[in-house]
C-alpha cells in the first residue's frame, strides 16, 4: 500500500502544480498521469499490466483522454 500511495502522491502533486508557460492543462495532466504510471511500474505496487490499465483508466476518468484517444493505439496495425 505504501508504494501505491507513492504513485498516487507523485501523480497528484504534479497534476496540482501549475503548468509552465506554453504547456496546456491537458498536456500537463497527461504528463502527471504518465509520471505516476512510470513510478508505479518502478515501485510495483501491482503487476505491470494492472498499473498500465489503471493509468489508462485515470486518463479517461479525468477526461484527459477520450475513449477513442486512449485506445487508438490498439486499433492500428503494425506492419
From TrEMBL:
Membrane topology of the entry = Multi-pass membrane protein
Keyword Membrane carried by entry: yes
Q: Provide the GO MF annotations for this entry.
A: malate transmembrane transporter activity
* Record-level GO cellular component terms: chloroplast inner membrane
Taking the record's annotation, the residue ranges forming a coiled coil are none
PANTHER family, alphabetized? DICARBOXYLATE TRANSPORTER 2.1, CHLOROPLASTIC
* Name of the protein in its database record: Uncharacterized protein
